[in-house]
Amino acid sequence: MTTKIKTLLVASLACVAIGSYSITSAHDPSVGNRSVPMTGGISVEPREPNFIMPSPVHVFTTVEAASEYIGFRPQMPKLLPVGFNIQSVITLEKDILQVVYVYEPGIDPYVNKAGGALIFYRTSTTLKGDISDDRKIHKVIETESVDGTKVTFKGGKKMVYLASWIKDGQNHSLDFYRPVTRDMAKAIIRNIVEEKSHTK
């Protein structure tokens, strides 16, 4: 009996609550000088079409193709540690040319201890300062002259993770996934030259 009374009481309260609400007309709300129809009681605002930002990264199969796109003939390494070959060539916007070199071990993996190492080489004619995208904190940061060019070395006293410099209007950076000796870094820098044509 008490359950029936409770049920009737709840039902009557629900009816009273529903009856206290007034229904307003769902006329079209105006947006600016035009009306927007309502759908299911929810106003739908007009939206601009989705805009997808173009990627700043462009991938190339050769340095030659990348240099034509970016608009300058880059100075490129002619000397690298044994076993390093080009893995990828990209441009970032039309500001930076990046070439990644990867170590590909031969038959004897013990000939070169740099297995799996990468070297990121970047160059630009439009950007100044550090273009390496390096975020590491280095114990040693020193500037030294290499054949008359000021080069900043970052890493340790003997080993280098990053080298950066400007030569002939081109900004350069060499980022070593595994550090190399400073002498090795200098040798690479001395042999970065502009060529008439590039092959991958």
UniProtKB/TrEMBL annotation:
Protein name (database record): DUF4367 domain-containing protein
Signal peptide: 1-26
Keyword annotations from UniProtKB, A to Z: Signal
Domain of life: Bacteria
Organism whose genome encodes this protein: Veillonella dispar
